[in-house]
Amino acid sequence: MIQLLFFLTAVPDPAGIAFFEQKIRPVLAEHCYECHSATAKKLRGNLYLDSKAGWEKGGDHGEPAILPGDPDHSLLIRTMRHAEPDLEMPPRKPRLPETVIADFVAWVRMGAPDPRTGAVIEAKRADKSWWSLQPLDREFAHESIDGFIEEKLAAQNLSLNPPAEPGALIRRMTYDLTGLPPSLAEVEAFRAACRTDRAAAVKALVDRLLASPRYGERWGRHWLDVVRFGESNGFERNFIIDDLWPFRDYVIRSFNEDKPFDQFIIEHLAGDVIGRDNPGVEVGSSFLVAGPYDDVGNQDVVAQKNIRAATLDDMITATSGAFLGLTINCARCHHHKFDPIPAEDYYRIRAAFEGVRHGRRVVASREERAAHAAATKPLQEKIAQVTAVRNALEGAIEARAKESLAKRVFPRPKVDPSGTEDRFAPVAARQVRFVVHGTSDGRGGGRLTEFEVWSGDRNVALAANGATAEGARGAVAEDFPEAYGPQFCIDGQPGEQWFIGSPAVLTITFAREETIERTVFRNAKGKDVQDKSQGATPCEYEVQVSADGKTWQTVVTGEDREPWSPAHGIQRVRGAVTSAQDLAKLADLDRQIAALQAQLSRVAPLPMVWAGNFAQPTELTHLHKGGDPMKPLEPVAPASLSVLDGALKSYTLDPQAPESERRLALARWIASGDNPLTARVLANRVWQYHFGTGIVDTPSDFGFLGGKPTHPELLDFLAQRLLANGWRLKALHREILLSRSYLQSADHREDGAKLDKDARLLWRFPPRRLSAEEIRDTLLTVAGKLSLEPMGGKGFRLYKVMQNNVSSYYPLDLHGPETHRRAVYHQNARASVVDVLNDFDLPDIAFASPKRANTTTPLQALTLLNHAFTGDMAAAFASRLEAADPIGSAYRLAFQREPADRERAAAERLISEHGLRAFCRALLNANELICLD
Amino acid sequence: MSSHPLEMARRDFLGRMGSGMTGVALSRLLAGELTAAAAGQPHFAPRAKQVLQIFCPGAASHVDLWDHKPQLEKYHGTPLPGGQTEVTFQGKNGNLMKSPWPFAPAGKSGKMISTMLPHMAGHVDDMAFIHSMTSRTNTHGPGCVNMNSCFTRDGFPSAGSWVSYGLGSLNENLPTYVAIQDLRGEPPNGKANWSNGFLPARFQGITMSAQQQLRNLSRPDSISEREDAATRDFLKLIDEEHARQHPGNDELRARMAAYELAARMQMTAPEVSDLSKEPGSTHHFYGTNDPNKLKAAYARNCLLARRLLEQGVRFVSLYCASRASAVDGLLNWDAHKTLKADYERHCPIFDQPTAALLTDLKQRGMLNDVLVIWCTEFGRMPTHQDGTSGRDHNPDAFTTWMMGGGVRGGVSHGATDDFGRRAAVDIATVYDFHATVLHLLGLNHEKLTYYHNGANRRLTDVHGHVLQSILA
Fold first, then answer.
1. Which end of chain A has less neighbouring CB within 10 Å, N or C?
2. Minimal CA separation from B123 to chain A, in Å
3. Which of A493, A806, A811 minimises the CB distance to B188?
4. Which residues in chain A are contacts of B328 at CB distance < 8 A?
């Protein structure tokens, strides 16, 4: 039928062409081309009517605009007739004259003869017929992976390489599945086994590696890239997050357990919903809050809304990219420019996440909670009892103190933060001490902006007059030692402050002996600033002077000033109204409380995890005009994404549905076996990590701008296998690893390289450089220093964190033994750069990194040659070489092979002159160490 | 140029290494990851080849430095019309507050500039001010990143990375893009300011300063020069052998080339950062021996910047001040509470050394090739912050300027309203700013693209117009 139609329309009769030219083309040009042609300013509905190919292909509706011979079902005619609402063309205008419509009907009935041969127009964007949005194929031309690969190779007159040499194969496979090199013993055993039965040996190798706990560490690391896992919050403050590691352990555990991936996805989005009281499941929801977010505490309302929108945008982007391979984030401000994703879809997901907040919470089982309560509750009750007794006694004392206070007279006004003056009889002094006994907030510490000592009309304490100031600091900024120092008290500037440390004493030494009679201190900044940022002011104090720095004389105190607050007053007279007996009783009660507190602190706290907090949103989710949260349009209900309506069952929840239901519904929809994207995207990731490049080389973008699949049928085949295996990855790994495509050698061939340099068609196994983590782990392994324990837990750091309002991360020059763990356990903070790992393309985790970069830079050479880590590893490596044959044993440890004669001779020369360490340092820099066949 | 001591030292060294390869050939080997979109060629004839970016983080106040507002002086102490209820970054605001220092006319153009910048005043006839800048954020970290990458979140390439990607290197023996940190630490959001984002790592900004050499540049003390050379010779031998056995793998050759480039860098970088080569008069002129430690340190970085530009570093980012601290305005230009005291610390650090650097570039004729851009992340309020004598953040107006490399001197683009509260005339964005920078470098900001996660990304996102009025 199709062929017949093609025949009919391919050879139209001259009368039909004439009809088209007279009646049809002018109308199209006048009424349609403005929006539906290559010359349109803005193409609408993705439909071209200026070529035959254009209407044959159709637009966003996913059907041809004209069905030759069938006017009643042709979309073009339906729209011209204004037969259906919202499908009226030309838009916002009355129908074209009936005679014109009749002409079009007649034209379509005669087979829509159209001489406009214009080349098939390359679509400028995808519509709903886009390949990745279609249901998975179910029937295949081949029964195994190799069939698909060989078909494409044959089409290019290419073929697979012969099987890889066993030594190369075990190295390739061991790195692939565990991220570590094989041991020499493993290589030798495998070679031997291959000699007896290669197929059985390979199968056994795959089984052994998939069962190794190292597998989860390697493949879990891949997944952490995909979900933009980073252990600091990014943005300006970039605070380190110390309780997100349970999520990393959960990912590694899940891979090792071969957890079905649909389950894994649901746990990511709604682990807290389906895993209440099951910490191992609940922790999955950390995924939602593992991305960067701004916590700067902006007071500006518009900025707050923008920040919240950006925070949710991170979750939306991460979710759609990781699971669906869709760039839904591009539909935040407008409909997606390249994919058929309306802006509504973006806000549908936003509605699902509207109740998610970054933060930590207790993640514990019912039993753990009960045990914790049983251990703490009696102690807390006891503490409350003793505290009540203490409070009663303290209350009685305070009552007496108040009485006493009422009788006291304080002749001088209270301390004034913007300037407190004390006068005293003129005295000769070389030094002045300002001793602080109490501060306005009653907590000690406090800050001081200026301290002046006057001799007549001269402030002799000024640095400008030769004075110096000393005093302990209550705060430090490691990268700027001057900060918060006592010198700010004598700089004559009202801005910077001394953060008072312990002991709380400011000592000022004059240039020479001075006769002084007055001091002034202030902690206000500027002239009269009094806000939170000026800190607590000293209010109980004394001023001492000394001529020799040894004997000190108090010249004035603040005791006769009105107390800062009633509480401060009570403190002053308290001593006088407290009996020795009361004091002893108080001390005893305090001891009891302290003992109980100590017991309480010994009870292990319930585990807190950075797994997010959830609250029912108070407002509906709205579409935002241009992505601007200040311009809300109509409300959007939590619902499935319309972009996939054709492929699987949709859902729409009540706009006020409980937030947990929203996430669960979205999770189930994503993890459905009917969702063609989820299985395809996952199968492609698995393929990518085995072969270096995916069948689609943009693993988190299966849209129009993404790569097209090199082997679309194979991709669907793999996706179907994944589903058939109950979403378990290990079975899929096995199938891939046992294919001839995987087992072939990486040898170079001119014919293949000419046609397909990157071996996307797999005429050879594509060689690769090791990843950042593999390189560091390899150096540690070769040096005999890699520590596989602890497997999990809190990560180690290759940087020093400096926290001073914001966090700064400085790479360490020395990597101690505590860093000799697998690199997956490095606590990767955002915007930190560390040696080796970042040099070799460990990405910053501002975004997901579904595909690692692979760069070659001189900085890599500088690091591997000169950083102390290489020096340490070279020394350790040298120390484990066999004395009888150091060169041979080094080659066996590093490359699992014997050295060639030429290499041995050169090595001997190097060692004889510069020793083993130089030789080991060279091997650790060798290409062979970090390049895989 | 060929008689330059650096050049000779390098040739000696390479002669010893026995390499016949030129820097260009080496760099081609490393360029495997480059796409055709950026072949290291400008799109059209450039006006400038290099960029010197001077960045004053902390939101340096436009109304106290560059943007003279007579009305602000006149209405000092009265409420900002319509502004009484404004809540900005840190909260409420008080009345209008004039700058603590008078402005004075400078140069032939008579441009009004703060008297706190007496040395900079000498350059106004060469500067093109953009007074109508606006930012999309009122927060320092995202603001700095925005000023550098046109996006408020981390993860996007900075302008220096885009330029390196678009134009490539002029001297492979040094990094293409250098970020010089202030003695006081990293700017807000730290390394994200010179990040390559999703561009390949070779386009990242490399940090070095007068007080800190390029990381891992020096061989460990425990290894002698002879041992180091012998080790590299052996490495080269085994890598050669390995590459020979693996034909058709360009990456192996590229990695070997990277080791050679590293060796050249080890020769060149210490030479460039050795400021003792400069005469005493130059040191004095920049202020490198000033008793003010912070000023002296910044002056040394200014001098380093000139030496790097001379050696062909494509993009130099020079920071004057750093991050937020527990006290606003201590480490950078963030004068929330005590503007006068804060800027009396910051201005003298900035003024003389920066002006000396500009004079030096001009006298050496380097401004023909070097485009100088001065940046900060946003402006400050014309009012004082409630209960303080400082100013809160103002993303609605700030000033930047450019000079050299194809920029018209002595002009101003755009203007703020009477008080400097908002940009009002010819409003400019960070996109416009960088569209102009790229334009001067011969790059069309709409054509310099890189695919990442679903979009062909640009430095200027989907915005930006070249500011024609400041082009020479």
1. N
2. 30
3. A806
4. 533
Give one DSSP letter per residue of A462-477, joined into a string: -GGGT-EEE--BS---
pLDDT in tens, A853-900: 888 889 999 999 999 999 999 999 999 999 999 999 999 999 999 999
A79-121 pLDDT, tens digit per residue, is: 898 887 777 888 888 888 888 899 999 999 988 988 887 654 5
Percent of chain A having pLDDT more than 90?
Answer: 76
Residue A528 has pLDDT above 70, yes or no: no
Report the pLDDT value the prediction gives residue A54, as an integer from 0 to 100: 85
Asked if B155's CB is within 8 angstroms of A808's CB, the reply is no
| A854 neighbourhood in chain B, CB within 8 Å | 33, 251
Nearest by CB to B89, from A298, A530, A804: name it: A298
Find how far residue A780's CA is from the centre of its chain: 27
The pLDDT tens digits of the residues spanning A507-520 come to 999 999 999 999 99
User: Exposed/middle/buried for B30, CB within 10 Å: 0-12, 13-18, 19+?
Assistant: buried
Considering only CB atoms, B255 lies closest to which of A703, A859, A927, namely: A927
CB-CB under 8 Å, B239 with A926: yes
Is there a contact between B154 and A831 if contact means CB atoms under 8 Å apart? yes
**Yes or no, beta carbons of A808 and B142 under 8 Å apart:** no
The pLDDT value recorded for residue A12 is 53
Contact flag B154-A235 (C-beta cutoff 8 Å): yes
pTM over 0.95: no
List the domain boundaries for chain A: 2-124, 161-211, 260-364+607-674, 367-408+579-602, 420-562, 881-932
Q: What is the Cα–Cα distance from A308 to B34, expressed in whole angstroms?
A: 37
* For range A586-613, the mean pLDDT: 96
Distance from CA of B355 to the nearest CA of A (A): 25
3-state helix, strand, coil in chain B (%, to 5): 40, 20, 45
DSSP string, B103-135: EEEETTTTEEEETT-TTGGGGGGGEEEEEEEE-
Q: Which of B140, B152, B330 to mutate to test the interface with A (most CBs of A within 10 A)?
A: B330
Q: Do B142 and A236 touch (CB under 8 A)?
A: yes
User: Residue B187: its pLDDT value, please?
Assistant: 93
**DSSP of B402-414, one letter per residue?**
EEETTBPTTEEE-
- Contact across the interface for B454 and A918, Cβ inside 8 Å: no
The Cα–Cα gap between A251 and A260 comes to 12
Query: Which residues 6+ apart lie within 8 Å of A211 measured at CB?
Result: none
Mean pLDDT for A412-431 is 95
CATH H superfamily, domain B44-213+277-470: Alkaline Phosphatase, subunit A (3.40.720.10)
- Selected for mutation to probe chain B from A857, A897, A928 (highest B CB count within 10 Å) is A857
The answer to whether B421 touches B394, Cβ cutoff 8 Å, is yes
Distance from CA of A596 to the nearest CA of B (A): 36
Q: What is the pLDDT of residue A619?
A: 94
pLDDT, one tens digit per residue, over A357-408 is: 999 999 999 999 999 999 999 999 999 999 999 999 999 999 999 999 888 8
Count of CB pairs separated by less than 8 Å, A with B: 305
- Distance of alpha carbon A232 from its chain centroid, rounded? 8
Nearest CA of chain B to the CA of A813: how many Å?
9
Share of chain B above pLDDT 90, in %: 75
Residues A697, A711: Cα–Cα separation, whole Å? 11
A902/B30 touch (CB, cutoff 8 Å), yes or no: no
Q: How far apart are CA A203 and CA A185, in angstroms?
A: 18
State the average pLDDT for chain A: 92
Please give the backbone phi and psi of residue B323, each rounded to the nearest 5 degrees, phi first: -90, 180
Residue A322 has pLDDT above 90, yes or no: yes
B390·A526 Cβ contact <8 A: yes
